[in-house]
Amino acid sequence: MALLDVQNLSVNYGVIKALKGISFHVDKGEIVALIGANGAGKTTTLHTLSGLLKPESGTITYKDQNLVTTPGHKIVSLGMAHVPEGRRVFKDMTVLQNLKMGAYTRKDTAEFQSTLEMVYKRFPRLEERKEQLSGTLSGGEQQMLAMGRALMSHPDIILMDEPSMGLSPIFVNEIFSIIEDVNKDGVTVLLVEQNARKALTIADRAYVLETGSIVKEGNANDLLNDESIRKAYLGE
Amino acid sequence: MSFLTYLINGLSLGSIYAIIALGYTMVYGIAKMLNFAHGDFIMVGCYVIFTICSTLSGNTIVGIIMAIILCTLLGITTEKVAYRPLRGAASPLAVLITAIGVSYFLENLALLIFGADIKSFSSVIKWSGLSFADGALKIQGVTIVTIAVSVVILIVLQLFIHKTKEGQAMLAVAEDRGAATLMGINVNRTITLTFAIGSALAAVAGALLCSAYPSLSPYTGAMPGIKAFVAAVLGGIGSIPGAMIGGLVLGIIEILSKTYISSQLSDAIVFGILVIVLLVKPTGILGKKIQIKV
Predict the structure, then answer these.
(1) Digit-coded pLDDT (tens) for B154-181
(2) Closest approach of chain A CAs to the CA of B169, in angstroms?
C-alpha cells in the first residue's frame, strides 16, 4: 500500500487543462522525483496535493484518507508538509517566528523544543540568525528556512517544489545533500525539480511530466541513462 | 493654556479616529479588502447603547457590552454573507461595491427603525473630568477616558498580534494566504476573527464618539468612518501603529484648524493634508514599500 496514491488527477485553470488525468504513487521511505519543463504541471500537482487547488476529477489517497475532500489547512496535521516554490517564507517575521509557524498545528511545547533543536542541528545557520527578519536572508538561507519550517511540523512526507531554483551551485549541492539526510531519517520525499540531473541522482524513482500528462516513469537510474531523457532534460 | 486644551481635545478626537482606523487597517491588512461599511458599524453600536440606556432603561455598562457583542456578530455575519462569497471574484471592485452596499443597507435600516430625527445621546462617561492650574486647564472626563481607552486598545492589540498564536496566524495570512494554509492555518477563520475584532472596536469607538458628540442619526458613522479611513491611509494602511499615528495626527489637525483657521474649512484642510502626504510618501507614514516581484 503506497503512502500517497494519486489516480487520474485532472486540474483546470478556467479553460486551461493543467493536469490531464495523471496517476502516480509514492511509497514510504522513497524519494520520488517529478521532473519536466516549465508549465508541465509540476507545481500544480503539488498545490493540489496540499489542498491549495481543488481538482476537477481524480483521487488523492494519503494514509487511507481522501485528500480531495480535506480542506487545505488540515493537510499538514496529517503529516504532509510542503516547501513551496519560491520558498514563500514570511518575510516580515523573524527566522524563529517562521519556524514557530511551521509548528502551528502542534500543541506539545516540549516536543516543539526538541524539534526546534533538531532543525537547528540540521541548519546551524538558522540558529545563528534566529532573531533576523527572514526577508533579509539570502536565497539559499531562505530555502533552508522554508525546509526547516516544513520539518517543524514533523512530517511523514515532504513535498519540495524547486528547492534548487535560483541558488548558487554550492547551495544547490548543500540543499540536495540535506534532502538525502532528511530522507535517511525516515521522511518520504516528493521532489519537483527542473534540475533533472540533480533530482534523478538522489531519487529512487521518477515521473516525467509533459504538458499535464505523465509520459515516462521508472527507476531514477534508468531514466538517467535513457536516451530521450538525456536529450530532452539533461542537455546532452 | 487654551492651546493645550485644544491639543488635548484633538488627541481625544484623534483617539476615536484611531480606534476606527484600527478596524479598517486590520481588515485591509489581513482580508485585503476595504470594508466601507465599517463606519456604519459604529452607528449600529451607538443605537444599541442608545436603545438599551434610554428605552429599556438598562445600565450603561450593559449597553456597551451589548453593543460590542452585537457589532461583533454584525461584523462576522457581514463577512460571511456578503464578503466571503466574493473572495475569489475576478475583480477586487466586486467586494468594494458590496461593502458600499452594506453601508447603505445599514444606514437605511437604521432610518427605518429609528427614523431620521437626531437622537440626543447621553454620555456613557459620567465623570466630569480634571481641572488643573486653578481651573485654567480643564479636561473633560470623556476626553481622558477616550485617550486612555485608545492607548489600552493599542497595547492589547500589539500584544495579541505579536505574542499569541492567533495573532501570528493573522500576520501570516496578511503576508501570504497560500503559505499560511500550508502551515495549517484556517484562513477563513482568521479573517472572521479579524472582522470580529475590528467590529468590536467599532462599537467601542461608537460609545466614545457619541459621548463626546452626543447627537445620533443613521449617518453618524459615515463621516468619522471616512476620516478614519483617511487616518489609516495617512498612517500607512495595513499598519497598526500607523493607524494610531494617522488617527492622532488627523484629530489634532482637525481641532487646531477648526480653532485657528476656519471650522468650515477644517475638513478641506484634513483631506488636503492627506493629498500632500500621499504625494510625498504614497505608502503613508509607516507604510511599507510595495515590492514588485521580478
Answers:
(1) 999 999 999 999 999 999 999 999 999 9
(2) 8
**pLDDT score at B293:** 44
Chain B residues touching residue A84 (CB < 8 angstroms): 178-179, 182
| Residue percentage of chain A with pLDDT more than 70 | 100
Looking at the complex, does the CB of residue B187 fall below 8 Å from at least one CB of chain A? yes
Q: Where do the domains of chain A lie, and which CATH numbers do they carry? A: 4-233 (3.40.50.300)
What is this model's ipTM?
Answer: 0.94
CA angle B79, B68, B249 (to 5 degrees): 85
Is A50 near chain B, with CB under 8 Å? yes
Distant-in-sequence, close-in-space partners of B198: CB < 8 Å, separation ≥ 6? B22, B23, B24, B26, B27, B35, B38, B75
Short-list B45, B13, B38, CA closest to B23: B38
Which residues of chain B make contact with A158, given a CB cutoff of 8 A? none
Q: In the prediction, which pLDDT does B274 show?
A: 85
Mapped onto helix, strand or coil, the DSSP state of residue A117 is helix
